[in-house]
Amino acid sequence: MALHESGEDYLETIYLLSKKSPFVRSIDVANELGFSKPSVSRAMRLLREEGMITVADDGGLKLTKAGLKHAASVYERHTLITQFFAELLGVNPVTAEKDACKVEHIISEETYLRLKSFMTEQGFELPEK
Length: 129
Description:
- This protein is mostly helical.
- It has 2 domains: 5-69, Orthogonal Bundle (Arc Repressor Mutant, subunit A); 74-121, Diphtheria Toxin Repressor, domain 2.
- 66% of the residues lie in helices and 5% in strands.
- It contains 6 helices and 2 strands.
- Strand 1 (53-55) and strand 2 form a beta hairpin.
- The longest helix has 24 residues, at 65-88.
- It is elongated and about 45 Å long.
């Protein structure tokens, strides 16, 4: 299943927030991304329908097994591409982060796997999942 860029961004945000706190709500996602609560609520409904998250009665968001796998993959791509831009190419870290956020959604699997192999050969560690 292919999520849109925004869906991947939401998954990645839930993933990162859940590493900081076991209880993540839509409002936390909205605050983190700077989006309106109605926009986030709609996105959460779509992610729930896609089987990426569950929403508890108390509003807690949890990644499903499929959601966790997808979110961890997006996070890995984001982190590795940011490292490549900033540490190997010397791009300003803020710019590297912004550019990586765009590239992570459009890079082909073949190119990403080659980049991952190259970064590993250079001694860079992959992000923790």
